[in-house]
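note to self — DONT lose this again. spent like an hour looking for the file last time. sequence + predicted structure for the chain T wanted, 295 res
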Amino acid sequence: MRHKALRSNLSQSLEIDSAGTHNYYSGSPPDARSQAHARQRGYAFADLRARQIRDQDFVHYDQILVMDEDNLNSLLAICPAALAYKIQPLTQWCSRHSDKQVPDPYYGGEAGFEHVLDLIEDACDGLLNALGARPVSTTAPLEPLQPRYPITLSSDMLRQILPQRGALFACKSLEIRSPQDFNGTALWERGHPAFEGHFPEQALVPGVMLIETATQLAGAGVGYLHKRSTRGVLATVREARFMQAVAADQTVDFALQCKTSSGGVRIRASLAVNARPVAQIETLLVYRAASVNII
């Protein structure tokens, strides 16, 4: 896939990785016979090292392509239900072969390795042709995936989408009700780093943290629905009106409306604690160039 992507000039739009369903061979290079047969066709992957699939892969990658039914069932058993649509048989992209799965060539002799390469080449060609028909644009609106709503992202999933927040992370959940409407929650527990240097006599959440968190929750939802490796930048705060202070250990509910365009994402957020309004916020999130991620 990497080799063909480079030849098709799609390398800047694709993130390609591989992983196994088990950790039997973690850290090991590909089978020597696989490498030998691949070299005869011009492929080199001696640098690859086996790893087991991770929970964050289900969030990060747009498509997770499996070799056979055992792989499919193993991943469906551990994948969050809202993300299961990403898991697909590799052979569904074949146009020259009718095989429903890619067999394990380990005991199949030389002919087995050649047949596996034939199937993988066929599938890669089909997938890359489909992706090439939808080139990535840095100016056109992002084209969303087609999940089933509502989708709930847990705190752990949000942390994977927003790793840059580190110790300042406070998001608890996000429900994606439609491509435009999200409901999120956040909680700043007593002792959270956000309180350091702010309001020393009383633990109150700084307004800037509410602005950032509203934008981060919306950005996480948009980033989930669109190309996973896009990164958003808070470009403008158009409105920030605070009606009530938010104290430590109070759960804040965020009602988010997002309008995506070529200029970025316009976010309107209504914040409440125990159904009482605490803030109205409007921001603009600007996205960098999108890419498609495949494992």
